[in-house]
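Q: Convert this sequence to structure tokens.
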Amino acid sequence: MSARSSNQPFLAADVGGTHARIGLVSGKGDGRRPVSVLHLHRYSCADWPGLAAMLRDFVTQLENTPHATAAAGIRECAVACAGCVLDDVIVNGNLPWPVSISAIREGLGIHNLAVINDFEAVAYATQFIDAAETRAIIDAPTPLPGPVLVMGPGTGLGSAVLLPGEPRARVLATEAGQISLAPGNDREIEILRLLRRERSHVSFEDALSGPGLLKLYRALGELRGGPVHWTTPAEVTAAALEGNDPVAREVLDVFCGLLGSFVGDLGLLYGARAIYLAGGILPRIHDFLLGSTFAERYFNKGVMRAWLQQVPVRLIEHGQLGVIGAAGWFLDEGHARGQEA
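A:
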């Protein structure tokens, strides 16, 4: 494989279960970040037949921008996508369509396509953010060097760990969201009992995700013996925040408590020195999260409470981070390997 030209812009995409962000990026960074995003567009995945179609549309859009010349020469693409690579496809149950790597290459004339997990890309990008771009959930002293955990609920429950090292940091993609759900009180035991009627393995993702919010809502509606009104995660969240639906309010209480417990578990598992929360749900409920049992459950780890008191937890807006992370990883090492799971 021939060496790439650092002056040639390339595509970078951040593909989640609900939205995809596609950017034209340049390897000329701004001194703080390794890349510059020249043009960006967000797509609703359900409105398109597949990722290849979105990428083609994005390239067509570029023809009407100052980057038209660059668009004609695009031969490289970095994709951060929920799921993992298996042979020619990206395997993920949260995407509305299959993703074929060969179809993207052939359809756009891409010579070099690198694929990584979406939270792997976000974790990589945390190297280039500062505290002013985040919101505090758990305050702590300036963290010591060490692993950085990134996790968050959206259409699924993503998680990755940034591992510092020389000459560069590495990122460990995980499927921590598939860990078996561990209830922390009697109410959560009752919820788990109901969720187990649908499947033998109930994961944290079954509660801590958009679809998980609906599962919690239906379970709590049954336990309370009352009707359920809402059919989307956004409706449940809105009703909880407005405070006029006690079932929805309890859903968000349970959600935040389970999240705090799970984040604390993962922080201990990976020896995290800092934790970033991302995903599409948490920015909407930031104030509710601060007033919830999140912190109580996060610290409820027996003798390890003292460790977690030294680990800051901060909320980050997803925004361009996935695109920046995918592109930065691509320049750092991905383009040398062609394809990555």
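The chain has twelve helices and 14 strands.
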